[in-house]
Amino acid sequence: MLARLIYRSVSKNPSDADISDILTTSRRKNHAVGITGALCHLRGAYMQYLEGDEAAIECVMAAITEDQRHCGLSVIEYRLIAARAFPQWSMAMLAWDPEIEATLGPLADMGLFGIPPDDAAPIFRSLSMTSHWNVL
After folding, report:
1. Coil, strand, or helix at residue 21?
2. What is the distance between the alpha carbons of residues 33 and 59, in angstroms, rounded to a whole number?
3. Residue 33 has what pLDDT?
4. What's the rounded mean pLDDT across residues 8-25?
5. Which of 37, 81, 85, 101 is most buried, most CB within 10 Å of its CB?
6. Per DSSP, what are the bridge partners of residue 41?
7. What is the CA radius of gyration of the chain?
8. Which of 88, 91, 92 is nearest to 27 (CA)?
9. pTM for this structure?
10. By the 8 A CB rule, do 4 and 76 touch?
11. CATH number at residue 88
């Protein structure tokens, strides 16, 4: 069955090198197991949207949970889905800029932890319509 999982966590030491490594590794591993999705990083917080086969998502999440670059991981949504929102993205990264912050409005001031769980998937889908994604 096809599933979607969205989680948040806190970066222990946010750096461009960590984010680059996360993207490189995610893209390689996700492609191999059929996972697609998107990653946001804002003010030291991560929010990631994963979609794919339930077993593959569980496997990827086991590795993400063990990653020492972040802490405070919390799953904010897990559900079965009929279709992928990001079928072409092995892992896309949102490039934050003033336009994105304006799109988010007051939520940008609260950071990623200010996004209510029920709004996470719709917000990812809305943001995916912008041209601010680093996609491979």
Report:
1. helix
2. 9
3. 92
4. 83
5. 37
6. 46
7. 14
8. 91
9. 0.82
10. no
11. 3.30.70.100
Contact 1, 35 (CB under 8 A): no
Residue in the block written with tokens 């896309």: 92
Strand-by-strand arrangement of the 92-94 sheet: 70-80, 2-11, 45-53, 36-42, 92-94, 133-134
**Residue 77 to residue 45: CA distance in whole angstroms:** 17
Q: How many domains does the chain have?
A: 1
**Domain extent for 29:** 2-134
Helices 16-33, 54-66: inter-axial angle, 10-degree rounding: 150
> Token digits for 108?
């940008």
**pLDDT in the model for residue 133:** 65
Read off the tokens for 92: 């896309």
User: Is 87 in contact with 60 (CB distance < 8 Å)?
Assistant: no
Q: What is the DSSP secondary-structure string of 40-67?
A: EEETTEEEEEEEEEHHHHHHHHHHHHH-
What is the DSSP code string of 71-128? EEEEEEEEEE-SS-S-TT-SSEEE---HHHHHHHTHHHHH-GGGS-HHHHHHHHHHHT
Confidence of residue 73 (pLDDT cuts 50, 70, 90): very high
